[in-house]
Amino acid sequence: MTTITMTVNGKQMRADAEGNTLLVEYLREGLGLTGTHVGCDTSQCGACVVHVNGEAVKSCSMFAADAEGAEITTIEGMANADGSLGTIQQAFQDYHGLQCGFCTPGMVMIAADLLKNNPDPSEQEIRDYLEGNICRCTGYHNIVKAIQAAAGQSVPAVAAE
Ligand code: FES
Ligand code: FES
User: Fold this and answer.
1) Are residues 41 and 71 both part of a single domain?
2) Whose CA is nearest to atom 3 of ligand 1?
3) How many domains does the chain have?
4) Whose C-alpha in 9, 33, 42, 94 is 20 to 30 A from the C-alpha of 49?
């Protein structure tokens, strides 16, 4: 067991971890940041995506020890300073980009990564970028619309269900 320190959502945090503790386990169990989800054991679903030094990473595919000293952003860090939903989160709410919500943290984090790299993506570019993120509920259509809206594109409103 060693103590691992990283900056998470702008705050320096530390917790003990084994050498083989995954980053997602460290975040959820070590730091209590349970917004990052685990949806598979094959690194396929993307529910666990966080940002490590500004890059989207599946946190189930990285050891916590390898993130020692890194800057991490999780879904808990995506809200505005006053606690209100951030732009991407608000767009997911407005455009019904979630149903059960299990995939949503990873979707928001991958969307933020996409918009940082490509602020005005086409629909196809959004769909391609979401390839590593699985949603079992929505059929992706409203997720794509939410990301288009978060990018400032004109998107028809989605009727309330
Ligand atoms: Fe990481 Fe599924 S839990 S990809
Ligand atoms: Fe249920 Fe995506 S909203 S898995």
Assistant:
1) yes
2) 38
3) 2
4) 94
Q: How many CB atoms lie within 10 A of CB 11?
A: 9
Check whether residue 109 and residue 71 sit in a common domain.
no
Task: Please state, as a whole number, how many other Cβ atoms lie within 10 Å of the Cβ of residue 119.
Answer: 9
Which structure tokens are listed for 143? 């997720």
CA 24/CA 34 separation, integer angstroms:
9
pLDDT tens per residue, range 72-114: 999 999 999 999 999 999 999 999 999 999 999 999 999 999 9
What separation in Å is there between the alpha carbon of 76 and the centre of ligand 1? 18
Token couple for 32 = 């209590």
First and final CA of the chain: distance in angstroms? 49
User: Do 27 and 91 sit in the same domain of this protein?
Assistant: no
- The pTM of this model reads 0.96
Residue of 23, 28, 57, 60 to test ligand 1 pocket, by largest number of atoms within 8 Å of CB: 60
Cβ atoms 148, 126 nearer than 8 A: yes
The residue behind tokens 């509920």 is: 137
CATH number at residue 33: 3.10.20.30
Containing structural domain, residue 27? 2-76
